[in-house]
Amino acid sequence: MKIALLQPELDEKYSDQKLAYGGGNRPPETGLAVLDYWIRNHSKQKHEITILDSRRHIEDLADEASNYDLLGMSDWFSNHGNVIKIARMAKLINSNLKIALGGPNAANIVQEIFNNHKTIDYIIEGDGEEALLGIADGKNIAIIPNLWYRPVEGTQKFTYRKFISLDDIQLWDFSHFQNAAERLADYLRWQRDCSDPWLVPPLTIFSFRGCPKAMKEGVCKYCTSAETYGRALSPKKFWNQITNLNQKYGAEMFYVSDDIFTISPKRIEDIAKAKPESARARIRAYGYLSDLARLPQSKLENVAKNLERIGVFNLFYGVETYDTAVLDGMNKKGIGIDETIRVIKTLKKKGNVGATIAYVLGLPGESKKSLQTNIDSLMKLVDIDDCLERLYISIGMPLKGSVWYNELQSDSRIRRDYTDETGKDVVVDDDPDYKLLASLSIRYKTSVSPQQVNETVQKMVEIASKRLENHKIGGFMLEI
């Protein structure tokens, strides 16, 4: 079977996202490399797999995709429009083409996609390796895990859930990507010539699937992708993958995409101890402040030293807000600004690990007081020398599939206003207007106005700009 894999670029309406790193083209996508190697190593059939260059025009991508038997695309809320356009155009050329969607968005809107877009044949929920392999090998649908499909009659059906062992994943590379060398060129150039790691486009690796916070405390109400079943890559396999990329491409700068990298002091210690002398890695990853703050000071310092040994230079903390009432409403625990400062100062002093702090404004329950609380907290953070390396500040997006979205769509006022503005029903829309929904959420679920939220975002950006360079300040939605 001829198989094409693709992660399309951002839709035009999301192209103004400020990602807070520099550089040029994004490197080849790790998730697609893993799928490619899984099929090649686990199928008894000989498949021809090509990973398409996402930078090409969507008409060209659709035209090429139509020459394959199976097209697998990674669907995010931010590229969903392009995913659907490519699927529609490719299917018009080749009606026999089978199209499967995976990624963090598609499984949240299965019914909407199947009802609104007849071009989509399959949607993969969760681990995609065995699902895509089963489709490629032509297996009976009933025995393929993690798969939504269209039956001959009736509504969409789901097969069954299955999780893979991450240690079963083979070492992957970018051998089967179109224009791989060209796509890696910017990454390698910035890595070689620039001392600022935030100018290097991120090359993604992973060590864990699942969200430890969601497993212990439940999913945050604004989240759409938190998996409550965890699977860890062995420390040895983690380093084998890094040294493989060191040797094949000279890659040394990595972004670990785990929901939380700092799962526990023991996990961090095990990874640090397993690091080979030959491994070269500078890593940015995600941390969870609440967990780190609960550690005794001596253990926190030890975590800092092990992170430095691993090569971690920055941890991203999804603080969201320092207003406890707003956080409680989103089912997330937080810590105060003083505890935040203690944690990030300790990690910087003992392990040279900087901090990225991420705020989300406009969440339900927002008030003038909570907005001012966040302004005050940022003013304290920027006064800490060298600890705050990067700021993310966004207006909350009630993504479809989240508890927050479900609460909004059940509000008759929001459903009415959304229809009046867009002509669509928010319940069945598979590509919602998130700026409008964020604005409606602020109007009906907070005591502030969209204008006040916008002004606070801009004020916080101005505060951060006194200490941080422009490319180190970003956000998904900076204005509504």
Summary of the model, kept short:
The protein has about 475 residues and is an alpha/beta fold. It is built from 18 helices and 16 strands.
Description:
Helix content is 41%, strand content 15%. With 480 residues, it is an alpha/beta fold. It folds into 2 domains: 2-166, 3-Layer(aba) Sandwich (Rossmann fold), CATH 3.40.50.2300; 203-474, pyruvate-formate lyase- activating enzyme (Alpha-Beta Horseshoe), CATH 3.80.30.20. The strands form 3 sheets. It has a 7-stranded mixed sheet, sandwiched between helices. Strands 8-11-12-13-14-15-16 form a 7-stranded parallel sheet. The termini are far apart. The mean pLDDT is 96.
Name of the CATH first level of the largest domain? Alpha Beta
Low-confidence stretches: none
Write the CATH fold name of the largest domain. pyruvate-formate lyase- activating enzyme
Question: Which superfamily, in CATH terms, is the homologous superfamily of the largest domain?
Answer: tm_1862 like domain
DSSP E strands, number: 16
Please tell me the total number of domains. 2
Q: Which overall shape is indicated by the principal axes computed on the Cα atoms? A: globular
The total of helices stands at 18
Beta content: 5-15%
Rg from alpha-carbon coordinates: 22 Å
Let me know the largest β-sheet. Answer: 7 strands, mixed
Spatial separation of the terminal alpha carbons? 46 Å
Strand order of the largest sheet: 2-1-3-4-5-6-7
- Report the average pLDDT across residues: 96
CATH architectural group of the largest domain: Alpha-Beta Horseshoe
Structural class by SSE content: alpha/beta
Could you estimate the helical fraction of the residues in percent?
40-55%
